[in-house]
Design goal:
76 residues; 4 helices; extended
């Protein structure tokens, strides 16, 4: 659909930053609902992150930044 067609159908379309936040929150909420009671090791998480990057190399930088942030979280 052409962007101008969407604006004609919806007089108040959502802002781009609202859409990005919604999808991010939805994934986090699903994780909490499905697996929130589980305990996992950081080694398991690292393996899962590596598998994700192997399957989706375009996300390597973002995943690496997340892993670095998690690794250093207690130092700041």
């Amino acid at each position: 659909m052409h962007p101008s067609a969407a604006s004609r159908e919806d007089p108040d379309p959502p802002r781009r930053d609202e859409i990005a936040v919604y999808f991010t929150d939805r994934g986090i909420e699903e994780l909490a609902e499905r697996r929130g009671d589980e305990e996992v090791s950081l080694a398991w998480l690292a393996d899962r992150l590596q598998a994700f990057v192997d399957a989706h190399p375009d996300f390597e930088i973002a995943v690496d930044r997340l892993a670095t942030w998690l690794a250093r979280d207690d130092q700041e």
